[in-house]
Amino acid sequence: MKTRLIIFGSLAALFFFILRVQGANLITDATPLGIINLEFASTAEELNAVLFGWSNADVKANIYIDFVFIPFYVLFFSTAAQACSKAWKSNAMQHAGKSLSKAAYVAGALDLIENKFMLDSFAGSFSDFTLIFTNWCAGAKFLLLLVVILYIVISLPFLSSIKTNDGS
Length: 168
Hints:
Layout: H1 2-22, H2 35-39, H3 44-51, H4 56-85, H5 91-122, H6 128-155
Helix pairs in contact: 1-4, 4-5, 4-6, 5-6
């Protein structure tokens, strides 16, 4: 499990870094959060304001890089939550970790859907519903990941008590 955490964590960190560097041009006075501003654009006016001044190539590249990033962060957070579940003596906290391990996959699925709708919006194919749905997917994704990260963080002090039989 430790090897999986190192591999998936390293790849997730690498692609996060690539996204930040490649997406630097998407951070402007009008879009201080870069691509996140596009994720949360919930009206046609907001969408147009976000896209104004952005390079088409930069937007597309950022979304496509995110498609590669998704499996790595999902596998990292899922594996980490699963590992953390073993650190707890409480059945409820063990169950929480196992459930959050699965929630990471839900977050990834929401991110895939969100990316598909952002590409559609970027191409001019959107409605009020699809913008709100994209917004909802982004919000739910971030909320799930926040809960997973909080669970991992509160589990860290207990990780030294895990005994593994596989040597990893």
